[in-house]
Amino acid sequence: MFTGQNNGQRWWQTAAVVAVAASLALSGCSKSPESTSGTSAGPTNSTTTVAPQKVEDIAATVPENIRKSGKLVVGVTIPYTPNEFKDSDGKIVGFDVDLINAVAGVLGLTPDYRESDFAKIIPSIEGGTFDVGMSSFTDTKEREQQVDFVTYFSAGSQWAQKAGAGIDPNNACGKKVSAMAASTQVTDELPAKSKACVAAGKPEIQILTFDGQDAVTNAVVLGQADAMSADSPVTAWAIKQSKGKLESAGPVFDSAPYGWPVKKGSPLAQSLQKALEHLIASGDYKTIVSNWGLEEGAIAKPVINGAIN
């Protein structure tokens, strides 16, 4: 549930610097999805998924410059398992990837995935470098001022902890909580909870930010953080892959739509929406969601700019 960088929030920068260094130590800058804790960041290969045929009338709605290029240029930040990450062969895979691959098939395009820092994806869409973003973006009112979104999934936030740790997300004052840099958990959720702690005369939450979700999870497994906060599908996957080392800390909360960002006013938004509607009607969308065990977040109808907040 990523959000853009908030320049007004600087109080956690020191923790971020320390955490990034820890992230590099934990991940070893490896392309492998295996984490140093012994928990798997995802399957070793992509799932068996769908391969829809081009639908001529939908493909005809794609902007001419994209249609002529034959490519859909997609900006993506890796890893955010199980939504987007690299398999054991270094191939970009995941739920989001399977879905964009299917949408591109309907549109008669070949997806061209280009890795980017998360904070640079929307500016790159505005500048025309990327056609669309694919990194578990939350569709927000603030973001809709910059780009348009096509919604495709519903996700909330959820905390994970070491088994038996007894962490309460609503009373975590003084605890160390890890989260993905630039995520809504870092820019909104955790600062708000920490501020409430201070207002009540309690110690603030120590927010540890990392550039990769693997390092966020490892921080909890290795005892560097008391808990982690991430999008609900990411937390569920981390718990599943931890083989009993992690468990949920509280229920899913603050559900909101994921969306694909495109340039403001671009007709590509309607093309993506129509392609996804086709996949929902054909049952291919359900197949993809089920392949990743994410049925709970499936939507019935995509919309353009469906932000809740």
UniProtKB/TrEMBL annotation:
* Keyword Signal listed: yes
Q: Which residues lie within the region annotated Disordered?
A: 31-51
* The entry's keywords: Signal
Please name the CDD domains in this protein's record.
Answer: PBP2_MidA_like
Question: Short name of one Pfam family for this protein?
Answer: SBP_bac_3
Q: Where is the Solute-binding protein family 3/N-terminal domain?
A: 71-296
Query: Is Signal included in the keywords of this UniProt record?
Result: yes
Q: What is this protein called?
A: ABC transporter substrate-binding protein
Q: Which organism is it from?
A: Mycolicibacterium anyangense
